[in-house]
Amino acid sequence: MKKILIVFTIFFFAAMLFLTVFAEKIHENSLPKVTASRPEQKPFPFEYIDENGVSQTGSAQQIAVPESMLESGVYAVYSAEKNGTKRDFVRLVTVQTGAVSGGYAEVVSGLMFSDRIVIESNKELYDGCEVKVVK
């Protein structure tokens, strides 16, 4: 009985040592891996009235996201401190869209050009999810 307790104790402490050393790597490998970048800028048409009172059509660069991204949701990446370590998280962004052109939707509100948005993820995301940004 005493030998079993000694073996169990040794095994327990070895497991605790293993987890202490490798816990961060295990946690990091379990996170969704995402590719993030700034939103693209695309030209979108707009109408205006020139100085002669004639209606004209122009084009302006606006923040845009692929239409396909709107179906699954637009996630913005942000950094925050958790347990004393700076980590990356995502938040689901409510994006108001305008014109659609060439497979892209104009972003009227909800995103700024300085935001980083998730382009690709290897796992399903949710609001507040911690992620590992790989690119």
Q: What report would you give on this structure?
A:
With 135 residues, this protein is an alpha+beta fold. It is built from 2 helices and 9 strands, in the order H-E-E-E-H-E-E-E-E-E-E. It has helices spanning 2-30, 67-72; strands spanning 33-37, 40-49, 55-66, 74-82, 85-93, 96-101, 104-109, 116-121, 130-133. A 5-stranded mixed beta barrel has the order 1-8-4-5-9. It has a 4-stranded antiparallel β-sheet with strand order 2-3-7-6. A hairpin with a 2-residue loop joins strand 4 (74-82) and strand 5 (85-93). The chain is rod-shaped. The mean pLDDT is 88.
Find the count of extended strands (DSSP E, 2+ residues). Answer: 9
Strand order of the largest sheet: 1-8-4-5-9
Order of helices and strands: HEEEHEEEEEE
**Would you identify the regions where 5 or more consecutive residues have pLDDT less than 50?**
none
**Major sheet characteristics:** 5 strands, mixed, barrel
**For the CA atoms, what is the radius of gyration?**
24 Å
Summed over residues and divided by their number, the pLDDT gives a mean of: 88
Judged by helices, strands and strand pairing, the structural class is alpha+beta
How would you classify the quaternary structure? single chain
Span of the ends, CA to CA: 54 Å
In short:
Helices cover 26% and strands 50% of the residues.
SSE blueprint and pairings:
Elements: H1 2-30, E1 33-37, E2 40-49, E3 55-66, H2 67-72, E4 74-82, E5 85-93, E6 96-101, E7 104-109, E8 116-121, E9 130-133
Parallel strand pairs: 1-9
Antiparallel strand pairs: 1-8, 2-3, 3-7, 4-5, 4-8, 5-9, 6-7
Summary tags:
135 residues; alpha+beta; four-stranded antiparallel beta sheet; 2 helices; 50% strand; rod-shaped
